[in-house]
């Protein structure tokens, strides 16, 4: 039988040293042209990296567990895809787990990933069962970065990074005031959740400074909730001429309900979403939204977990990424 190609064969084919090939395989920093040359040499001679053997030698699996609370939400799907691609560019693989907002399933999946020896975790947690999930992660002693939501924002073992939700709510409210709105409502988000309170607090602070009364209707962050709230506003709060939605799904639900209700979006009712998912550009009318700049967020998140796993550089305890308002026709912009 023909001998299996070795790392020395790859080095000879690519015209580099064995150590350079090792750096490429480990995802370490090398010139892009060198990385491309080594990868091409591997493909040409049929070299397959023995990840299991490498794990035994280095105690690093090259796998990062990405645990997401709801992949049916396009916001989280976009983040997961971009994060996975960024890890791949650095020689790491992503093991994706969708918990579907089920804390019991979340704990079970994290336990399973620990058993498979992942080198690190990125967790956007489900609500509930925080103590159980924290116990599993703590026992694993694996680098873990919380994103978007937190199990415990004050636990020094698990840094937390999220967009600047408070500023986003403020930008949305200031924009609607600028567009002439005098009665602004906030729709969606579950009561008592930190993300809801942060997004709402920016809105509340702006209205308070203007001496305006808020209208807050919380609930599930879904399109169906948005549709129901559009009808509720028309029936019970006809004075409302602007709405800030907890996320884009709620806002898109509002947009879809308005034609049947005889409401002209962008004129009778100005609508702002939050997250700026891709659907915002293609809705009718296009949806104004607070952008969390997910491409940059995914890239920075990948850099932080890789720096922690590879170099032992733990991220800062809490960080907020910048947001910006993307103005479109739904707010009359």
How is this structure best described in words?
The protein has 333 residues and is an alpha/beta fold. Helix content is 48%, strand content 16%. The chain contains 13 helices and 12 strands. It has a 6-stranded parallel beta sheet, sandwiched between helices. The termini are far apart. Residues 55-59 have low confidence and may be disordered.
List keywords for this structure.
333 residues; alpha/beta; 6-stranded parallel sheet; 6-stranded mixed sheet; 48% helix
Which descriptor suits the 3D outline?
Answer: elongated
Q: Could you describe the largest sheet, including whether it forms a barrel?
A: 6 strands, parallel
Mean of residue pLDDT values:
92
Taken in chain order, the helices and strands follow as HHHHEHEHEHEEHEHEHEHEHEHEE
Tally of DSSP helical segments: 13
Helicity, in percent? Answer: 40-55%
Instruction: List the strand order in the largest sheet.
Output: 2-1-3-4-5-11
β-strand number: 12
* Unreliably modeled segments: 55-59
Radius of gyration: 24 Å
Termini Cα gap? 69 Å
Query: Structural class, from helix and strand content?
Result: alpha/beta
Beta strand %: 15-25%
